[in-house]
């Protein structure tokens, strides 16, 4: 996917009121494109976000070791006190999304997958 295509998917996601951040990461955890929704105050500084992105990609890559016998991961979510984070492994990038903490995880994940035309692996 081109950077323009990825950026347009982020813009589409950020129109949803529950989504705080949407971005695509390369397999080293670098942010390719992405941003916060307007008027959202980041909870972490840029350095902390970079560490969080690297950790998210490492978790995705570790989970892929089990794809042969368990099947591929469609998405992973972590509910925290202040936010919910989602990661969606795609071919050569990872979609990273953070939302408000009160979302229904499955409903929101399927909404994100629908908006970004991500195939469900389950």
UniProtKB/TrEMBL annotation:
Pfam families: DUF6659 (PF20364)
Protein name: Putative membrane protein
Originating species: Candidatus Nitrosopumilus koreensis AR1
């Amino acid at each position: 996917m081109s950077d323009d295509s990825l950026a347009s998917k982020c813009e589409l996601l950020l129109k949803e009121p529950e989504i705080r951040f949407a971005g695509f990461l390369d397999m080293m955890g670098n942010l390719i494109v992405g941003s916060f929704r307007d008027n959202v105050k980041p909870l972490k500084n840029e350095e902390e976000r970079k560490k969080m992105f690297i950790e998210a990609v490492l978790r995705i890559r570790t989970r892929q070791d089990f794809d042969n016998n368990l099947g591929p991961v469609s998405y992973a979510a972590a509910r925290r006190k202040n936010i919910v984070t989602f990661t969606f492994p795609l071919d050569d990038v990872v979609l990273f999304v953070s939302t408000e903490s009160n979302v229904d995880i499955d409903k929101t994940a399927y909404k994100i997958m629908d908006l970004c035309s991500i195939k469900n692996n389950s």
